[in-house]
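Late entry, glycine complex.
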Amino acid sequence: MEILKDIQFDSFPSRLVLATLEETSAAQGDLFVADDNTAGFLSPEQREKAVILPAGESEKTFASIERILARAVELKLDRSSLFVGLGGGVICDMTAFAASLYMRGTRVELMPTTLLAMVDAAVGGKTGVDYGSYKNMIGTFYPARQVWICPDYVKSLPDREYLCGLAEVIKTAILGDEALLIMLEEKREALLARDPILVREMIVHCVRFKAKVVEEDLRESGVRASLNLGHTFGHALESITGFSGVSHGEGVAWGMSKAVLAARLRGDISEAAYRRQITLLTDFGYPLDYPFSVDELIEAMGHDKKIQGGQKRFVLPAEGGKRFQILPLDETFLRKVLE
Ligand code: GLY
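Prediction complete; structure with ligand written out below:
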Protein backbone atom coordinates (compact mmCIF):
# COMPACT_ATOMS: atom_id res chain seq x y z
CA MET A 1 0.00 0.00 0.00
CA GLU A 2 1.33 3.45 -0.89
CA ILE A 3 0.28 6.47 1.15
CA LEU A 4 -0.73 9.30 -1.18
CA LYS A 5 -1.62 11.86 1.42
CA ASP A 6 -2.36 12.20 5.13
CA ILE A 7 -4.79 14.97 5.96
CA GLN A 8 -5.54 16.20 9.45
CA PHE A 9 -9.09 17.55 9.53
CA ASP A 10 -10.36 19.36 12.69
CA SER A 11 -11.35 16.32 14.62
CA PHE A 12 -9.66 13.36 12.95
CA PRO A 13 -7.12 12.19 10.39
CA SER A 14 -7.91 10.98 6.89
CA ARG A 15 -5.46 8.88 4.88
CA LEU A 16 -5.54 8.41 1.10
CA VAL A 17 -3.78 5.25 -0.07
CA LEU A 18 -3.16 3.40 -3.31
CA ALA A 19 -4.10 -0.23 -2.83
CA THR A 20 -4.24 -3.47 -4.79
CA LEU A 21 -7.30 -5.69 -5.27
CA GLU A 22 -5.81 -8.20 -2.81
CA GLU A 23 -5.38 -5.51 -0.19
CA THR A 24 -8.95 -4.24 -0.56
CA SER A 25 -10.42 -7.72 -0.32
CA ALA A 26 -8.42 -8.36 2.85
CA ALA A 27 -9.64 -5.11 4.43
CA GLN A 28 -11.21 -5.36 7.86
CA GLY A 29 -14.48 -3.70 8.82
CA ASP A 30 -17.64 -4.23 10.84
CA LEU A 31 -20.18 -3.36 8.15
CA PHE A 32 -19.59 -3.41 4.39
CA VAL A 33 -21.90 -1.46 2.09
CA ALA A 34 -21.94 -2.47 -1.58
CA ASP A 35 -24.41 -2.57 -4.45
CA ASP A 36 -25.37 -5.13 -7.09
CA ASN A 37 -22.44 -4.01 -9.24
CA THR A 38 -19.77 -4.24 -6.56
CA ALA A 39 -20.92 -7.03 -4.23
CA GLY A 40 -18.87 -9.47 -6.34
CA PHE A 41 -15.67 -7.74 -5.16
CA LEU A 42 -16.41 -8.55 -1.49
CA SER A 43 -14.52 -11.47 0.04
CA PRO A 44 -16.69 -14.16 1.72
CA GLU A 45 -15.80 -12.73 5.17
CA GLN A 46 -16.71 -9.18 4.11
CA ARG A 47 -19.96 -10.42 2.57
CA GLU A 48 -21.13 -11.90 5.89
CA LYS A 49 -21.15 -8.37 7.33
CA ALA A 50 -22.56 -6.63 4.27
CA VAL A 51 -25.64 -4.79 3.20
CA ILE A 52 -26.10 -4.93 -0.56
CA LEU A 53 -28.24 -2.23 -2.11
CA PRO A 54 -29.68 -1.98 -5.61
CA ALA A 55 -27.33 0.01 -7.88
CA GLY A 56 -28.12 3.45 -9.26
CA GLU A 57 -28.65 7.13 -8.53
CA SER A 58 -32.38 6.47 -7.92
CA GLU A 59 -31.36 4.49 -4.81
CA LYS A 60 -29.58 7.48 -3.26
CA THR A 61 -32.37 7.97 -0.73
CA PHE A 62 -33.17 8.03 2.97
CA ALA A 63 -34.68 4.56 2.52
CA SER A 64 -31.22 3.22 1.62
CA ILE A 65 -29.67 5.02 4.59
CA GLU A 66 -32.27 3.36 6.80
CA ARG A 67 -31.30 -0.04 5.41
CA ILE A 68 -27.62 0.60 6.21
CA LEU A 69 -28.47 1.76 9.72
CA ALA A 70 -30.83 -1.18 10.28
CA ARG A 71 -28.04 -3.59 9.32
CA ALA A 72 -25.68 -1.81 11.74
CA VAL A 73 -28.22 -2.25 14.54
CA GLU A 74 -28.73 -5.90 13.57
CA LEU A 75 -24.95 -6.46 13.75
CA LYS A 76 -24.94 -4.73 17.18
CA LEU A 77 -22.36 -2.16 16.09
CA ASP A 78 -21.27 0.65 18.36
CA ARG A 79 -19.61 4.02 17.98
CA SER A 80 -16.16 2.48 17.61
CA SER A 81 -17.29 0.27 14.72
CA LEU A 82 -16.03 0.68 11.17
CA PHE A 83 -18.33 1.07 8.16
CA VAL A 84 -16.72 0.38 4.78
CA GLY A 85 -18.27 1.52 1.50
CA LEU A 86 -17.33 -0.38 -1.66
CA GLY A 87 -18.72 1.19 -4.81
CA GLY A 88 -19.14 4.30 -6.90
CA GLY A 89 -20.09 7.78 -5.75
CA VAL A 90 -23.59 6.78 -4.64
CA ILE A 91 -22.36 4.02 -2.31
CA CYS A 92 -19.43 6.12 -1.00
CA ASP A 93 -21.66 9.14 -0.28
CA MET A 94 -24.33 7.03 1.42
CA THR A 95 -21.97 4.87 3.49
CA ALA A 96 -20.26 7.96 4.85
CA PHE A 97 -23.62 9.68 5.46
CA ALA A 98 -24.93 6.64 7.39
CA ALA A 99 -21.65 6.47 9.35
CA SER A 100 -21.97 10.15 10.27
CA LEU A 101 -25.45 9.46 11.69
CA TYR A 102 -24.99 6.11 13.42
CA MET A 103 -24.64 6.78 17.16
CA ARG A 104 -23.72 10.37 16.19
CA GLY A 105 -20.75 9.19 14.20
CA THR A 106 -18.89 5.95 13.76
CA ARG A 107 -15.71 5.36 11.73
CA VAL A 108 -15.87 5.05 7.95
CA GLU A 109 -13.47 3.94 5.20
CA LEU A 110 -14.20 4.06 1.48
CA MET A 111 -13.17 1.84 -1.41
CA PRO A 112 -14.21 3.69 -4.55
CA THR A 113 -14.69 1.40 -7.56
CA THR A 114 -15.43 3.97 -10.28
CA LEU A 115 -13.00 6.49 -11.70
CA LEU A 116 -15.41 9.28 -10.70
CA ALA A 117 -15.47 8.14 -7.09
CA MET A 118 -11.67 7.70 -6.97
CA VAL A 119 -10.86 11.15 -8.29
CA ASP A 120 -13.76 13.03 -6.75
CA ALA A 121 -16.63 11.60 -4.68
CA ALA A 122 -14.65 9.55 -2.16
CA VAL A 123 -12.10 12.28 -1.45
CA GLY A 124 -13.03 15.18 0.78
CA GLY A 125 -15.84 14.05 3.02
CA LYS A 126 -18.99 15.13 1.23
CA THR A 127 -21.76 12.70 2.13
CA GLY A 128 -25.46 12.61 1.43
CA VAL A 129 -28.55 11.59 -0.47
CA ASP A 130 -30.73 13.12 -3.16
CA TYR A 131 -34.10 14.62 -2.27
CA GLY A 132 -36.72 14.46 -4.99
CA SER A 133 -35.07 15.91 -8.06
CA TYR A 134 -32.42 17.73 -6.00
CA LYS A 135 -29.06 16.00 -6.08
CA ASN A 136 -27.08 15.68 -2.85
CA MET A 137 -29.51 18.02 -1.12
CA ILE A 138 -29.23 16.42 2.32
CA GLY A 139 -25.90 15.44 3.80
CA THR A 140 -22.93 16.11 6.02
CA PHE A 141 -19.19 16.72 5.80
CA TYR A 142 -17.67 13.55 7.21
CA PRO A 143 -14.29 12.52 5.77
CA ALA A 144 -13.39 8.84 5.66
CA ARG A 145 -10.55 7.70 7.94
CA GLN A 146 -9.05 5.95 4.96
CA VAL A 147 -9.79 5.99 1.24
CA TRP A 148 -8.48 2.91 -0.56
CA ILE A 149 -7.80 3.92 -4.16
CA CYS A 150 -7.47 0.77 -6.24
CA PRO A 151 -6.95 1.67 -9.93
CA ASP A 152 -7.51 -2.00 -10.92
CA TYR A 153 -11.27 -1.50 -10.57
CA VAL A 154 -11.16 0.90 -13.53
CA LYS A 155 -10.65 -2.07 -15.90
CA SER A 156 -14.14 -3.39 -15.25
CA LEU A 157 -16.07 -0.14 -15.80
CA PRO A 158 -18.48 0.30 -18.72
CA ASP A 159 -17.16 2.87 -21.23
CA ARG A 160 -19.78 5.47 -20.33
CA GLU A 161 -18.91 5.23 -16.64
CA TYR A 162 -15.20 5.57 -17.42
CA LEU A 163 -15.89 8.68 -19.51
CA CYS A 164 -17.94 10.05 -16.64
CA GLY A 165 -14.85 9.94 -14.44
CA LEU A 166 -12.64 11.33 -17.20
CA ALA A 167 -14.78 14.50 -17.26
CA GLU A 168 -13.75 15.14 -13.64
CA VAL A 169 -10.13 14.44 -14.59
CA ILE A 170 -10.36 17.06 -17.35
CA LYS A 171 -11.89 19.44 -14.81
CA THR A 172 -8.90 18.92 -12.51
CA ALA A 173 -6.49 19.58 -15.38
CA ILE A 174 -8.27 22.80 -16.39
CA LEU A 175 -8.42 23.99 -12.77
CA GLY A 176 -4.70 23.91 -12.37
CA ASP A 177 -2.72 20.80 -13.23
CA GLU A 178 -0.81 21.64 -16.41
CA ALA A 179 1.12 18.33 -16.38
CA LEU A 180 -2.18 16.45 -16.29
CA LEU A 181 -3.55 18.63 -19.10
CA ILE A 182 -0.56 17.74 -21.26
CA MET A 183 -0.94 14.05 -20.39
CA LEU A 184 -4.60 14.16 -21.46
CA GLU A 185 -3.68 15.85 -24.72
CA GLU A 186 -0.71 13.69 -25.59
CA LYS A 187 -1.80 10.30 -24.24
CA ARG A 188 -5.51 10.45 -25.07
CA GLU A 189 -5.64 7.18 -27.00
CA ALA A 190 -3.76 5.25 -24.33
CA LEU A 191 -5.91 6.77 -21.60
CA LEU A 192 -9.08 5.87 -23.49
CA ALA A 193 -7.69 2.35 -23.85
CA ARG A 194 -7.13 2.42 -20.05
CA ASP A 195 -3.39 1.81 -20.09
CA PRO A 196 -2.89 0.74 -16.44
CA ILE A 197 0.28 2.78 -15.81
CA LEU A 198 -1.20 5.96 -17.24
CA VAL A 199 -4.55 5.44 -15.51
CA ARG A 200 -2.75 5.09 -12.19
CA GLU A 201 -0.67 8.21 -12.87
CA MET A 202 -3.77 10.19 -13.85
CA ILE A 203 -5.62 9.09 -10.69
CA VAL A 204 -2.67 10.03 -8.48
CA HIS A 205 -2.59 13.52 -10.04
CA CYS A 206 -6.30 14.03 -9.35
CA VAL A 207 -6.31 12.63 -5.83
CA ARG A 208 -3.33 14.77 -4.81
CA PHE A 209 -4.92 17.86 -6.38
CA LYS A 210 -8.26 17.32 -4.68
CA ALA A 211 -6.65 16.43 -1.35
CA LYS A 212 -4.82 19.75 -1.37
CA VAL A 213 -8.04 21.67 -2.04
CA VAL A 214 -10.13 19.91 0.62
CA GLU A 215 -7.34 20.09 3.16
CA GLU A 216 -7.46 23.86 2.78
CA ASP A 217 -11.25 24.19 2.66
CA LEU A 218 -13.21 21.15 3.81
CA ARG A 219 -16.52 22.97 4.21
CA GLU A 220 -16.46 24.80 0.90
CA SER A 221 -16.24 28.32 2.20
CA GLY A 222 -13.64 29.25 -0.41
CA VAL A 223 -11.39 27.44 -2.86
CA ARG A 224 -13.32 24.14 -2.76
CA ALA A 225 -16.16 25.79 -4.69
CA SER A 226 -13.81 25.79 -7.71
CA LEU A 227 -14.34 22.02 -7.95
CA ASN A 228 -17.81 22.86 -9.24
CA LEU A 229 -16.38 24.01 -12.58
CA GLY A 230 -18.98 23.04 -15.18
CA HIS A 231 -21.34 21.67 -12.53
CA THR A 232 -23.88 24.52 -12.28
CA PHE A 233 -24.54 24.30 -16.03
CA GLY A 234 -24.13 20.51 -16.05
CA HIS A 235 -26.46 19.75 -13.12
CA ALA A 236 -29.16 21.88 -14.73
CA LEU A 237 -28.84 19.88 -17.97
CA GLU A 238 -28.92 16.60 -16.03
CA SER A 239 -31.95 17.83 -14.12
CA ILE A 240 -34.03 18.85 -17.16
CA THR A 241 -33.25 15.53 -18.82
CA GLY A 242 -34.51 13.71 -15.71
CA PHE A 243 -31.04 12.52 -14.57
CA SER A 244 -31.25 9.74 -17.13
CA GLY A 245 -30.73 11.12 -20.62
CA VAL A 246 -27.40 12.80 -19.86
CA SER A 247 -24.82 11.17 -17.58
CA HIS A 248 -23.10 13.20 -14.87
CA GLY A 249 -19.87 13.19 -16.86
CA GLU A 250 -21.60 14.31 -20.04
CA GLY A 251 -23.35 17.06 -18.06
CA VAL A 252 -20.07 18.23 -16.51
CA ALA A 253 -18.24 18.12 -19.87
CA TRP A 254 -21.00 20.15 -21.53
CA GLY A 255 -21.09 22.46 -18.50
CA MET A 256 -17.33 23.03 -18.77
CA SER A 257 -17.72 23.94 -22.44
CA LYS A 258 -20.25 26.60 -21.38
CA ALA A 259 -18.00 27.86 -18.57
CA VAL A 260 -15.10 28.09 -21.04
CA LEU A 261 -17.31 29.96 -23.52
CA ALA A 262 -18.48 32.35 -20.78
CA ALA A 263 -14.86 33.06 -19.83
CA ARG A 264 -13.98 33.69 -23.47
CA LEU A 265 -16.97 35.98 -24.03
CA ARG A 266 -15.98 37.99 -20.96
CA GLY A 267 -12.43 38.24 -22.29
CA ASP A 268 -11.00 36.36 -19.31
CA ILE A 269 -9.20 33.75 -21.40
CA SER A 270 -7.46 33.97 -24.76
CA GLU A 271 -8.79 32.44 -27.97
CA ALA A 272 -5.93 29.90 -27.78
CA ALA A 273 -6.89 28.79 -24.24
CA TYR A 274 -10.55 28.61 -25.27
CA ARG A 275 -9.73 26.42 -28.32
CA ARG A 276 -7.39 24.21 -26.28
CA GLN A 277 -10.05 23.40 -23.66
CA ILE A 278 -12.89 22.88 -26.15
CA THR A 279 -10.64 20.67 -28.31
CA LEU A 280 -9.81 18.52 -25.29
CA LEU A 281 -13.51 18.00 -24.53
CA THR A 282 -14.42 17.16 -28.13
CA ASP A 283 -11.37 14.93 -28.62
CA PHE A 284 -12.49 12.81 -25.67
CA GLY A 285 -15.82 12.40 -27.45
CA TYR A 286 -18.19 14.37 -25.22
CA PRO A 287 -21.26 15.65 -27.05
CA LEU A 288 -21.32 19.44 -26.62
CA ASP A 289 -24.52 20.14 -28.47
CA TYR A 290 -27.84 19.25 -26.83
CA PRO A 291 -31.32 20.41 -27.76
CA PHE A 292 -32.87 22.11 -24.69
CA SER A 293 -35.05 25.03 -23.74
CA VAL A 294 -32.94 27.93 -22.44
CA ASP A 295 -35.82 29.03 -20.17
CA GLU A 296 -36.08 25.57 -18.65
CA LEU A 297 -32.33 25.38 -18.15
CA ILE A 298 -32.14 28.79 -16.47
CA GLU A 299 -35.06 27.81 -14.24
CA ALA A 300 -33.27 24.56 -13.30
CA MET A 301 -30.09 26.51 -12.47
CA GLY A 302 -32.16 28.51 -9.99
CA HIS A 303 -32.48 25.33 -7.94
CA ASP A 304 -28.75 24.73 -7.67
CA LYS A 305 -27.74 24.51 -4.02
CA LYS A 306 -24.58 26.52 -4.71
CA ILE A 307 -26.67 29.66 -5.00
CA GLN A 308 -25.79 32.21 -2.35
CA GLY A 309 -28.24 34.95 -1.42
CA GLY A 310 -30.35 34.23 -4.52
CA GLN A 311 -27.41 34.84 -6.89
CA LYS A 312 -26.21 32.23 -9.33
CA ARG A 313 -22.45 31.89 -8.92
CA PHE A 314 -20.33 30.21 -11.58
CA VAL A 315 -16.82 28.86 -11.68
CA LEU A 316 -15.10 30.05 -14.85
CA PRO A 317 -11.60 29.26 -16.03
CA ALA A 318 -9.11 32.12 -15.97
CA GLU A 319 -5.58 32.76 -17.15
CA GLY A 320 -2.49 34.24 -15.64
CA GLY A 321 -1.85 33.91 -11.91
CA LYS A 322 -5.28 32.46 -11.19
CA ARG A 323 -6.67 29.42 -13.02
CA PHE A 324 -10.31 30.06 -12.13
CA GLN A 325 -12.71 32.66 -10.76
CA ILE A 326 -16.07 32.39 -9.02
CA LEU A 327 -18.60 35.05 -9.85
CA PRO A 328 -22.29 35.75 -10.50
CA LEU A 329 -23.46 35.99 -14.12
CA ASP A 330 -26.60 37.89 -14.99
CA GLU A 331 -29.42 36.36 -17.00
CA THR A 332 -28.81 38.37 -20.18
CA PHE A 333 -25.22 37.16 -20.31
CA LEU A 334 -26.27 33.59 -19.48
CA ARG A 335 -28.67 33.60 -22.41
CA LYS A 336 -25.82 34.67 -24.68
CA VAL A 337 -23.75 31.73 -23.43
CA LEU A 338 -26.58 29.24 -23.79
CA GLU A 339 -28.14 30.30 -27.09
N1 GLY B 1 -17.35 17.18 -5.97
C1 GLY B 1 -16.97 18.45 -5.53
C2 GLY B 1 -16.45 18.47 -4.14
O1 GLY B 1 -16.12 17.45 -3.59
O2 GLY B 1 -16.38 19.51 -3.55
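The chain is about 45% helix and 15% strand. Will revisit in the morning.
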